[in-house]
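Weekly puzzle thread! Below is a chain. First person to post its structure in C-alpha cell form gets bragging rights.
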Amino acid sequence: MSEIRSVEVLNLGATPYHEAFELMKELQQKRIDDNITDTIIFLQHPEVVTVGPRARNDGIEPPSDYPSFPVDRGGGLTWHGPGQLVGYPIFKWDLEDEKSVAQIISKIEDWIILALKSLGIDSNKDPRMQGVWVDSKKISSIGLSFLRWTSRHGFTINYDTPESRVESLPGCGLDTDTTTSLMRMGYQVDFDSLKKSLIETMPDAINRKIANN
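Winning reply:
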C-alpha cells in the first residue's frame, strides 16, 4: 500500500496575489528544509492575470483593463479572481509515483477529476492543454514551479467567475471562449463544496490526507 502523507491546510480567504506569492516562496523553503510538512493553501484572489514565461516569450499581454502580475511558473496567461478556487500545494513530491513533472501534473488532474465526480460533474483531461475540462471547456488550470522537487503555485477551479472575464482571455495559448466556469455551464457548486470534495478525495487521488483527520 502506498504511503499516506499528512497535509496541513491553510485557509486564507480573499488574499491579494502578491501576498500569496511571497508566502508560497517562504513556505516552499521551509518545506525543503523539512521545517513544515506538506501544506496546501486554499484561497481566492482579487482579480489579476498572472503572466508566465510562455506569454512573455511570445509577447502575449493581458488586455489593458486586466491587472497583471509576472510569475515564474510554466504557462502563459492565467486569470484569477472571484468565483475561482485556488489551491497551492507546497508539497515535497517524492512518493513512489511522483518521479517526473508529468506524473505530478497528471496526479493533480486526476485529483480534480475525482473531486468533481463526487459532486456529480463529469470531467476529463484534454490533449490540447494540461488542466481539467468539462464538455470541451477548460474549467481548471495547473501550473507549478519546483525547487528540489518541492512545489509552489498550483491549480485553479472556476466555479462562478464574473461574466465574460475569464472567457475573453486567451489563456495559456488557447482561443478566447475556451475557458469558462462551472456555473456558466449549469453546475451549481461553490467554494466550500469544492474544497470539501478536494479534501475528501485527497487520500485516494494523491496519497495524502489532512493532518489529524
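Puzzle host: Confirmed. Bonus trivia for everyone else. The two ends are 19 Å apart (CA to CA).
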